[in-house]
Structure prediction request, 177 residues.
Amino acid sequence: MIFTKTALQGAAIIDVERHEDERGFFARTYCEREFAGHGLPARMVQASTSLTRRKGTLRGMHYQAPPHAEDKLVRCAHGAIWDVIVDIRPGSPTYCRWIGVELSEANGRMLLVPQGFAHGFVTLTDDAVVVYQISAFFAPDAGRGARHDDPAFGIEWPVPVTGMSDKDARWPDFERA
Prediction:
């Protein structure tokens, strides 16, 4: 795996190294020792998968409030997404800044989303399958979110958002600390 730090403190892009032959390829997508060696969260206790049927559908911007904050390792197993994270840690030098990364079946790229970041994505293809490894157990009452078009962040989405859940559409404005 190739680890690349991002402009947001604690976040990383991880590119898998594919070993290809006539059958296809094999690639490691997680190694506790390598993640720890790069100073990244190494303990993942849960895994989840989402299928989003239509291009232009947005999921996010979600996070878990402390003490249930979580690190997430995100990858797109089928199709493609534009994955976005926003640093919402008060006092952080990158507070309210965001980055977006294309994750796709073709590029095999992953994004490490640290605790204290809001996370969301818009699908770039129909039938996008996203796989998450998560460092904390799900706590429904700790679920929080912010609007995808919140002026506090100014996220620039690469495609028009044509669908989202009612819950994601109703998130309030983010209150800066």
